[in-house]
Each structure stands twice: as structure tokens, then as C-alpha cells.
């Protein structure tokens, strides 16, 4: 009896909550009883063909009613009117309602930052939200994002809903330095992680956790004070730290008018002349800076401005400097060059 009682209680709960298992059981039971009643009523034209009966049942349940299959006897018509139609329509409506409710719940969870994107790869993860600056940054990211690139994922603690639905995905966190939030955001497979907390202490902690949890992702952190940025650089050399350039731009513009305009052009993807980078692959053996400068200009109308080697960036290099696989070329162009289709043979001296 106790076992039977537990089974009854579970069945009651399943029916009361209208679980998928309860709906499936109701559907199967109603389907089989409907077939049995029509068979007893002599509706062999409907019951002898299994595929035909499934078709008749679904057409009736969805109220489409094509009319190509229908009961021929009075008993069959009464069974259809009093049993099949009400029951099938009720089950179909309940199933549709539960399906829509499930879709709505998934959307609501994503809006509230409860989604899980741990399998995502090649995307951008942003830690921290400041309404004006973060929105502007993500709008710039959206302008550069290619069609096959996944949506960026924002990790934030100061907001309750996704601030830019359709343009980003959102993970709600209690703190930015949260390994579980990084895991839900798919940070291990992210192309880059941008960290900007409410203050430098929060940024420092979040950036250190990000570098530990995501050893293969490029981490960029913004600081208000250079001293804090230097601390992070000493602790994690691979992190790229950024501080405000406003003082430098003020001085440079005062001595060299128009410098701020040049900097804005180089940094904005919305302008025709923007600074980009491309990494030299294994297959593109050594060549000189002069060869790369000439090849980029002639082949892609791009201007080489510097190279990155062993963690350092050198601008306006000597012509005979050797560039090898693993180095980074920094260039100015009106669009980003596609690394997958880049023709390295256009750089003189590169293997053909």
C-alpha cells in the first residue's frame, strides 16, 4: 500500500503541475481509447490503417478538419463529437500552452542573466557595466562583429535585465571576480575578455580571476590609475592594461594640432582609416619589415605601422627588421583583413 500510495501521489502531482510526462501519458491514453471506441463502432476505414488514424486524430485535434477522413456511422460521429474532439483539443491546447510557456521561461531567464553559454567560442566577454561607456563600447563591437561571430556576453552585477537584448547576451553575477559567472559566459572559449569594474580594485580582482580561469583568452583591463595597472602587469604579464589617454592627447594636440582627430580615426571602426592587427601564421616564414610594408600597400592598400614581437610593440621599424611566424602586424586600412583568406604570398619574400 505505501508503494501504491506514493505512486498515486506522484501521479497527482504530475497531473496538477501538468508535466511533460503527464501530458504524454494523457495523449497516449486518449489516443488508444479513441482508436478502441471507433474500432468497436465499426469504423474500420479509420482504424485499420495506423498511419491514416494518426493523420485523422491529429487533424481532428488541431481543428483543421480537412474532411478527407471522417466517421461514417452515427456511433462514430458521436464518439468523435463527445470524446475525440474535446479530449484531443484539450490535450493539444495544453501542450501548445506548455511549449510556449517553456519558450517564454527560457527567454525570461536569459533576460534576467540566468542563461548558460559555457559552450560558446570565439566571442567577446565583457566584465562590468557602466551605462554610457559600456553601451558605447558594445555598440562599437556590434559594428565590427561578423555574421558568423557569436554574440558578446556581458557579465554584470549592477543591473537586473539585459540592457541590449538582441545585440548581447547577459550573465548576472554577485561579483565580477566570480569563476562560475565566467564559466557560464563561456569565457574559456572567448576570443577576448574586457574588464572594467566600478573601481580599480574591482577591475584588478576580476582581471586576475579571468587570467587564471581562462589561460588562453586575451584579457584587456581598464584602469583609472597607472599604478594599479602596473601592479596587474607585474602579476600577469599577458594582460593588456589600458589607462586614460586624455592627458597625453591634450599635450600632443596642443603641440601638434589635429593629433586627437588622428587618434580617433585610428581607434574608431566607424571611420575609413582604422588601426587593425593580424598575426603571422606558421606557414608564412620570415620576411623583412620593408617587404611587409610594400606587400600590404600593393596587395591590400593597407599601411603597415608597426610589429609586435615577444610582448613588445615597435612602430616605424627599420626596413631590415625580420618578421617571423607568431609576430603581429599592425596596419591601417579601411577594413579588417581576413586572416583566413589573407594571401601571404603578396608579401615579398613570403613562401609561395
From TrEMBL:
Compartment(s): Cell membrane
Record's keyword terms, sorted: Ion channel, Ion transport, Membrane, Transmembrane, Transmembrane helix, Transport
UniProt main location, coarse: membrane
Pfam (any one): TrkA_N
Potassium channel domain boundaries: 26-96
InterPro entries: 2pore_dom_K_chnl, K_chnl_dom, NAD(P)-bd_dom_sf, RCK_N, Trk_Ktr_HKT_K-transport
Span of domain RCK N-terminal: 176-234
GO molecular function terms attached to this record: potassium channel activity
Membrane topology per record: Multi-pass membrane protein
Domain of life: Bacteria
TM regions (residue ranges): 20-41, 81-101
Cellular component annotations (GO), alphabetically ordered: plasma membrane
Name of the protein described by the UniProt record: Voltage-gated potassium channel
Organism of origin: Fulvimarina manganoxydans
Amino acid at each position: 500500500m505505501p508503494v501504491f500510495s506514493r505512486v498515486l501521489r506522484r501521479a497527482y502531482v504530475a497531473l496538477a503541475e501538468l508535466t511533460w510526462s503527464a501530458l504524454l501519458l494523457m495523449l497516449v491514453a486518449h489516443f488508444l481509447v479513441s482508436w478502441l471506441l471507433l474500432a468497436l463502432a465499426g469504423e474500420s476505414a479509420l482504424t485499420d490503417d495506423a498511419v491514416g488514424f494518426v493523420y485523422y486524430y491529429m487533424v481532428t485535434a488541431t481543428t483543421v478538419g480537412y474532411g478527407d477522413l471522417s466517421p461514417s456511422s452515427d456511433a462514430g460521429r458521436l464518439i468523435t463529437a463527445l470524446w475525440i474532439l474535446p479530449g484531443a483539443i484539450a490535450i493539444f491546447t495544453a501542450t501548445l500552452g506548455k511549449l510556449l510557456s517553456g519558450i517564454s521561461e527560457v527567454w525570461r531567464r536569459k533576460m534576467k542573466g540566468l542563461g548558460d553559454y559555457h559552450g560558446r567560442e570565439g566571442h567577446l566577454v565583457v566584465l562590468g557595466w557602466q551605462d554610457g561607456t559600456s553601451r558605447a563600447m558594445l555598440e562599437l563591437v556590434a559594428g565590427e562583429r561578423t555574421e558568423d561571430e557569436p554574440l558578446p556576453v556581458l557579465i554584470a552585477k549592477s543591473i537586473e535585465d539585459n540592457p541590449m537584448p538582441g545585440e548581447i547576451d547577459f550573465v548576472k553575477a554577485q561579483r565580477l571576480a566570480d569563476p562560475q559567472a565566467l564559466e557560464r559566459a563561456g569565457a574559456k572559449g572567448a576570443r577576448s575578455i574586457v574588464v572594467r569594474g566600478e573601481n580599480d580594485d574591482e577591475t584588478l580582482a576580476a582581471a586576475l580571476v579571468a587570467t587564471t580561469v581562462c589561460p588562453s583568452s586575451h584579457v584587456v583591463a581598464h584602469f583609472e590609475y597607472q599604478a594599479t595597472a602596473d601592479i596587474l602587469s607585474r602579476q600577469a604579464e599577458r594582460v593588456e592594461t589600458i589607462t586614460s589617454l586624455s592627458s597625453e592627447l591634450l599635450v600632443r594636440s596642443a603641440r601638434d594640432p589635429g593629433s586627437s582627430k588622428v587618434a580617433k580615426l585610428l581607434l574608431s571602426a566607424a571611420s575609413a582609416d582604422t588601426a587593425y592587427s593580424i598575426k603571422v601564421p606558421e606557414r608564412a616564414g620570415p620576411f623583412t619589415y620593408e617587404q611587409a610594408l610594400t606587400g600590404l600597400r600593393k596587395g591590400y592598400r593597407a599601411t603597415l605601422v608597426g610589429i609586435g614581437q615577444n610582448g613588445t610593440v615597435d612602430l616605424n621599424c627599420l626596413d631590415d627588421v625580420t618578421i617571423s611566424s607568431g609576430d603581429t602586424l599592425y596596419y591601417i586600412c579601411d577594413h579588417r583583413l581576413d586572416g583566413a583568406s589573407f594571401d601571404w604570398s603578396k608579401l615579398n619574400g613570403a613562401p609561395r
